[in-house]
């Protein structure tokens, strides 16, 4: 397809037999024909809208998902359901790489 198949410059054009689809690149929101980068302290949600990171968080530079919103409180994670920072459950620790709570085998032995 030429000119990205009519998709936005910040979209990925997927060619299929007799058709094509457009999807905004990670960190952008829109329908694929119109894509915009999410503003600072926001992340793309469902590839169509930008949602704010929790109030008590900082943001990495990539803004690709809520996992890029880093809660400022120790052992708290960003929750997509409530858009707030919540504490990891008892016996879990925050995995800084995925920004999710993981069960801690050693804590569960105590």
The biggest beta sheet is recorded as: 2 strands, antiparallel
Q: What is the beta-strand fraction?
A: 35-45%
Structural class category: mainly beta
Principal-axis shape equals elongated
Helix content: under 10%
Radius of gyration: 18 Å
Which spans of ≥5 residues are poorly predicted at pLDDT below 50? Answer: none
Number of strands: 12
Mean pLDDT: 83
Query: What is the helix tally?
Result: 1
What does this structure look like?
With 110 residues, the protein is mainly beta. Helix content is 4%, strand content 44%. The strands form 6 sheets. Strands 1-2 form a two-stranded antiparallel ribbon. Strands 3-4 form a two-stranded antiparallel ribbon. Strands 5-6 form a two-stranded antiparallel sheet. Strand 5 (42-45) and strand 6 (49-52) form a beta hairpin. The model has no long low-confidence stretch (mean pLDDT 83).
